Amino acid sequence: ITKKTVSRIGTNTDRPDAPDMLGRLMPLAQQQFDTLEQRQRYIYMNPAQLLAYNFGARVTKVRAGRGTGKSTAFLAPRLLRCVQTIPRSEGLFLGNSIKQLYTKTVPQVILGVEMMGYQEGKHFFRGHAPKKAGFKEPLKKPRVWENVIHWYNGACTYLVSMAIRASANGFNAAYLLADETRYLQPWRKVQEEVLPTLRGGSYDHPGWNEQENPFYLSQTWVSDAALTVAQQEWEKDMEDQTDDINSQIAEMLAELDVLPELAESERFLRKLRHLQCESRVFFNFSSLENVELLGER
């Protein structure tokens, strides 16, 4: 828990002034890096955040205590990996209400995004990006941009409220993220209205490959502990995990801990990606994982 963990983020080919997290693994222990590139950024991740990030399962569910850093370091890096690996796509950010998304979740996620070097008004806009930004166009343009985050590579993240009936209808989402999952009630509505939209598209475009990119058609669910039986609906399939595949991923990450240079091996990464594409995992984390930032008291 007390280890300081850092990562170097390289250069993005789509936009020279944007950092890149495409397919990169975070080091599992403290490491020093030479300044090989002009743009270099160090970020801190606690052990829980680091594990979820490196595990990279297509279906990731995280139940973590208060103050664990769910929005800033669970959801923000995951959102960036979806955006960067699936350019010009449309993805969904699901919340109990638009008010909850705008006042609680989105500000914290944007804080995490900006910690990783992305700036609102430069690399992304809430609402339509101005023409002078030179952003790529999404493959499917939104009719209304009000609740859309527009990214530099043409990807769009739609803020979707469960409080609005059929708010997810009409999407061909390439990924789905949800915060405060225990408040998404009834869960049957999520299954019937939201999950069927996670079908991506038939585009011949980089990143749109279900067998190669674990973030394409991915699901990310994050919440703290449920307080009532009704709020535990999303946890009922906790045991529906891919145990054998997850064990193989864990072994590869342990191997990477001993030999960090494996992160530069395309053969190693390809095998890991194929496992991640088939992986479903449910993590339980305590607030103690974030003791360095929260303080022992």
How are the SSEs ordered, and which strands pair?
Blueprint: E1 10-11, E2 19-20, H1 47-55, E3 59-64, H2 70-85, E4 90-95, H3 98-115, E5 124-126, E6 148-151, E7 156-161, E8 175-178, H4 187-194, E9 218-223, H5 243-258, H6 266-277, E10 280-285, H7 291-294
Parallel strand pairs: 3-9, 3-10, 4-7, 4-8, 8-9
Antiparallel strand pairs: 1-2, 5-6, 6-7
Helix pairs in contact: 2-3
Key features?
7 helices; 15% strand; 297 residues; alpha/beta
User: Please, how many helices?
Assistant: 7
Strand content: 15-25%
Separation of termini? 16 Å
Give the proportion of residues in helices: 25-40%
Topology as a string of helices (H) and strands (E): EEHEHEHEEEEHEHHEH
Give a brief outline of the structure:
The chain is about 30% helix and about 15% strand. It has about 300 residues and is of the alpha/beta class. An 8-stranded mixed sheet has the order 5-6-7-4-8-9-3-10.
Tell me what you see in this structure.
The chain has seven helices and ten strands. By secondary structure, the chain is of the alpha/beta class. Helix 2 packs across helix 3 (98-115). It is globular, with a radius of gyration of 18 Å.
